[in-house]
Structure formats: C-alpha cells, structure tokens
Amino acid sequence: MNIAEAVRIALQSLWVNKLRSVLTLLGVVIGVAAVIAVVTFVSGINDYVAQKIFNLGADVFFIFKVSPAITNVDHFLEAEKRKDLTIEDYQTVAAACRSCELVGASTRNESGHVKHGEQSISDTLVRGITPSMATILDTDLSAGRMLNETDVSNRTPVAVIGTDIVEHLMTGIDPLGQEIRLDGWTYQVIGVAKKKGKTLGQSADNFVMIPITACLKQYGSHNNSLRISGKAASAGVPLDEAIGESRAALRARRHDQPGGDDSFDIETNASLLGIWTGFSQTFFIATIGIACISLVVGGIVIMNIMLVSVTERTREIGIRKALGARREDVLLQFLIESVTLSLTGGALGVLLGVFIALTVTLLIGMPSAIKLWAVAAGLVVSASVGVFFGVYPARKAAKLDPIVALRFET
After folding, report:
1. Please, what is the Cα angle at 91 between 86 and 97, to 5 degrees?
2. Distance between CA 218 and CA 112 in Å, rounded?
3. What is the pLDDT of residues 133-178, one digit of tens each?
4. For residues 370-383, b (16+ Cβ closer than 10 Å) or e, as one string?
5. Which of 122, 136, 258, 285 has the most CB atoms around it within 10 Å of its CB?
6. Is 77 left (phi over 0), alpha (psi -120 to 50) or beta?
C-alpha cells in the first residue's frame, strides 16, 4: 500500500469538494483552535502572574483583614466582621519584626478623578502607601523622587504618578512640580513611575501614589482597612520567622484570645500563586471539556463523510480488490484518508487558535504564550480523532465483496 498515494487521494478529495470539506473539518478546526487559544492564554497569564510574584521575591508576605484568597463564603462573611487594620497595627509590626528588612502598608485601591488645568482623566487608581512599599512592590521611577517618611509624617500633599497621567494631562511639559487635582484635593507631582503597559486590557500606568496618611485624611479611615506587607531580612532569615514575629505582635495588639483564630490573614507569594494556579487549572479543564465536545462532533462528521466516500467509491474498491488489493490495503487506505482529513483540520485549528491569541494580545494586551507542547497535542488529538472515527468506515470498505462492488451502480 502506497501511503503517499493515499494521502494524495485524500487531499485531492478535499480540494474537489471544497464546501463539503470545510463543513467536514469545521468541528475539528473549532475544537483544536479553542484548545490552542485557551492553553495560550492560560499559559501567558500564569507566566505573567508568576513573573510578577517572582519580581516581588519569595521572601515577601502580606497581612490582610480578609485574605483575597478566601473561597469559603461563610469564612468570608465571618472575616468581614473583623476590625480594620490601622496605621497603629502597621507601626506595631514594623517595630516588632526584627527579622524583617522592610515593613510597609498601603490602603485599599480607590478609583479617582485627576484634573490638571482643563484636562482630566477618570478611573485612576489611587494608592496610599508608606515609602517602603515602593521597594516591596518593585516600583521604579523615570523622573523625580519617591515618597519619604517626612511626607507620611506631615501628610504632605505630594504624589507620584503613572505615565498615563503625564500623557493625557501634561503633554509637552515637565510634570515635576506641577499641581494636580485628585478628587478635588490638590497634590504636587514629585515623581513619575516607569511605564508598565497594559495588563488584561487595562492600563497599569493610570495611577497616583500619595502618602498613606494623606490618603486616609482625604478618603477616611472608615471601611479602609490597610494591607501590611513585609520583606524578610536578606541575610538568610527564614520567611516563617519574620511572619511569626509579625503575627505574635499583631495578635497581642488586637487582643486575640490565646489559642483562638487570628483576627487577620497572612499570605505569602507562594500561597497566592498556588491559589491562582488552582483557579486557572479549573478554568482550563472546564474549557477543554467544552472544546472536546466540538472535537467529538467533528469526528462524527468525518465518520459520516467517510461512509459517504465508501459508498461513492464502491466500484473503485471493487476494481482495486480485483487487481489484487488485500483487505488490509483497503482498510489502510481509508484510515489514512480519515487521518489526513482530521490532521488537516487540526493544522488549520492550530493556526486559527494562534491567530486568535495573538490578535487578542495585540488588541487588549492579554498575556499569551504559545507552547510547542500544546501545538503538538492539538495535532495528536486531531489525528486520534481521525483514527477513532475512521476505523468503522475503513472496515466497512475493506469488507466489501469485490464482485458485489463491481456490480454497484452509483
């Protein structure tokens, strides 16, 4: 049996019956494209999240009133009743954690309106921070200086802004020293952060950072629990030791009962990354399950078309057998044609999935990462679909009696 000839016949059949070929391969194309696109997006987002957490370092921990990683509704509702984390809590941790190189605090992110002259920009992220948070969060400046302890102590109305503020409100002028109106309050620009670009379609440069005390003064401390962040000392101090010192000091200040639960949550980068990985895997499995339905439908369509092909080529099969073709030769011929059909659909699906992923990344900035193993898996799965759904039509063709086949009238 000439394999190359069987492949040529299959491709020729695809080309001759273009509309039928498109409809036949549509299910496989959609299924494989969905798998490739999902794997590309999930891998890209996982790489992005891991990179961001890696940049923060494995020696960083966070203290929340309510952890963002809580998935139990009852636990969340109970945690919401806790007292807010305050400046005094932050100062307690900063004084007690001898194993910490840095301790910082930040407010919940507010959405603000920034104005300069006659220009304005909305949905700006407002962050009240202590100076050490800039180091913990790996925030670099392109111009000016960062907030300092004097700014925090005096509630100085100064701000570090993102590049979106500069591009929209201060085009052509030096932003340093300029005054902006943040939700009606005046702040002087002392620094400009380096450009970060877009993440998941949202700009990461539309923000204003102000002293945490100035933020609490403007927006109020009620229902504005702080997030306390710590970084273990660089001289090989275990992260658990820094967490333990911070936890003990905070429990004492908040009068948590001995043996009772903490009135706060502590998370590390590893735990946050693990929670995100679990979520992304659940999303991945659910989407792949839906894509598999499309592949099954595509496989059924391929089997149906192969049965039609067997009927259309009954006399051809009879002639081949009369000329000496064995049952195995006919079986292999139709099986190769079925696999060629599905592989063609798989290849088109891979190209479509990559195109969709790259287009979405280009349009909205969603992270994506093309994985070679995903491309290979898409082709293997599509070939497997061709084998599985092509066996029955191939066996039917192989079992045809050559005399009956030669008498068949189309």
Report:
1. 125
2. 12
3. 888 877 889 999 999 999 999 999 999 999 999 999 998 899 999 9
4. beeebbebbbebbb
5. 136
6. alpha
pLDDT higher at 366 or 379: 379
Cβ–Cβ < 8 Å for 378, 295: no
Residue 294 and residue 352 in contact, taking contact as beta carbons nearer than 8 Å: no
Q: Can you give the residue ranges of every domain in the chain?
A: 3-51+275-407, 109-218
Nearest to 192 by CA among 208, 179, 180: 208
What are the residue ranges of helices labelled H in 365-401? 372-398
49: phi then psi, degrees, rounded to nearest 5? -65, -45
* Average pLDDT value for the chain: 82
Q: The tokens of 191 are what?
A: 């620094």
Q: For residues 178-195, b (16+ Cβ closer than 10 Å) or e, as one string? A: bebebeeeebebbbbbee
What is the largest distance, in Å, between two alpha-carbon atoms of the chain? 101
pTM above 0.70, yes or no: no
Q: In the structure encoding, which two tokens stand for residue 406, read together? A: 């030669």
- Report the residue count for the chain: 410
Which three-class secondary structure state does DSSP give residue 178? coil
CA separation for the pair 210, 151 (Å, rounded): 9
